[in-house]
Amino acid sequence: VGVIGNLVHSSPNIKKEVLLAGALQPVIGLLSSCCTESQREAALLLGQFASADSDCKVHIVQRGAVRPLIEMLQSPDIQLKEMSAFALGRLAQDSHNQAGIVYNGGLVPLLKLLDSKNGSLQHNAAFALYGIADNEDNVSDFIKVGGVQKLQDGEFIVQATKDCVAKTLKRLEEKIIGRVLMHLLYLMRIGEKVVQRRVALALAHLCSPEDQRTIFIDNNGLDLLLDLLGSTNLKQQQDGSVALYKLANKAMTLSSVDAAPPSPTPQVYLGEQYVNSSTLSDVTFLVEGKRFYAHRIALLASSDAFRAMFDGGYREKDARDIEIPNIRWEVFELMMRQVQFIYTGSVEVTTNIAQDLLRAADQYLLEGLKRLCEYAIAQDVNIDNISSMYELSEAFHAMSLRHTCVLFILEQFDKISIQPGHAHLIQRIIPEIRNYFAKALRPNPRNS
């Protein structure tokens, strides 16, 4: 067999002559030999035969080569596994053979070989899986047995294998439409729990953005991912967090704040020269014994809180001096003077003053200033302060900051999971994640 293999390798014409001479069936018979060396040589030669043309690939399968090749994948002999994976990889590049390899039980053994520390064996298995993924009938089987997670989590030795795996995932992604998607949704509803979770995880990574609402809201895929995130099993938590983060990035309306929001445009700007100026001032704030001169028209145009204060039934409506008992002078001055927001419509919020300004902006319902404070604070979110930042967002109804914290937790879960109290933090954010996705994946009125 080795001699024939060398001849076949040396010339395509010799390969044709050997096939015409009737070598195929005896070589397939040697796959069942009790001699390991003969099996290896036979598998290698079949792989070489399979590169000839499509008809040859089909003939090899029709004559019974697939089942013994799959059995060889589970041999303790590394070289035997390598050669059988090589032959199956060549055979799997023909559309007629892809379903048959899966039907005969080849998918799971090939996926297991991705864990090998042998680069050639790992690559041969990856190449075979790439061929199998080309058949849409195999997509559900791929996902049911955890194949997508295997491809995503694998540690691949050579770059060619990494590229092959990336192409396989892309191939699977392109096929999750129409009847394939419908069947996966069916499995996600009625399959065993482990299958339901595998489907939800795979779809989070591979589905198109247009199908996200159908999958994760209408068919409860989001609940499956949140169950994983809330699990006591760390690996399940990690899988859930990665999938949710991927899902969030796909949702166009759902992302961490990546650009400072524009300053809002109140109807009246008096100008910087009127900041804390007695000129035309018709109201004075008393803060820690100090006077801050202001102008009702600017305040009325800038904030619902000030509008209620001066245009409602409160005692401050006609007061000339208004005492502010629950805010420090420095913070009030930052809000009204240093920031100059109410008077000029422009603002520069730095991280060292952002938290104090957020409290003041929330108190006085300055929504534009509040959003800018949230943006500034979000730039400072890190592993050490994420818990306190999330608490800050809850205390002051800072939704933009809260969403940034949620995305940060999902993205950095591996690091956060080793921090004290991480389990409590995860449980706290799960309801927020649910609301977050319900909003992000809501129907577009223009499309409906």
What's the structural blueprint in terms of helices and strands?
Elements: H1 2-10, H2 12-20, H3 24-30, H4 36-49, H5 54-62, H6 66-72, H7 78-91, H8 95-103, H9 107-112, H10 119-132, H11 139-144, H12 147-153, H13 159-175, H14 178-190, H15 193-206, H16 212-218, H17 221-229, H18 234-250, E1 283-287, E2 290-294, H19 296-302, H20 304-311, E3 321-323, H21 329-338, H22 341-344, H23 351-363, H24 367-378, H25 386-395, H26 399-411, H27 413-416, H28 422-440
Parallel strand pairs: 1-3
Antiparallel strand pairs: 1-2
Helix pairs in contact: 1-2, 1-4, 3-4, 4-7, 6-7, 7-10, 10-13, 14-15, 15-17, 15-18, 17-18, 17-28, 18-26, 19-20, 21-23, 23-24, 24-26, 25-26, 26-28
Our measurement of the CA-to-CA distance between the termini, rounded to an integer number of angstroms, reads: 66 Å
Structure summary, number of beta strands = 3
Mean pLDDT: 85
**Rg, nearest Å:** 33 Å
CATH topology of the domain at 2-175: Leucine-rich Repeat Variant
Q: What top-tier CATH class of the domain at 2-175 fits best?
A: Mainly Alpha
Sheet bearing the most strands, described? Answer: 3 strands, mixed
**SS class:** mainly alpha
Protein name: BTB domain-containing protein
Pathway: Protein modification; protein ubiquitination
Domain BTB: 281-351
ARM repeats: 64-106, 105-147
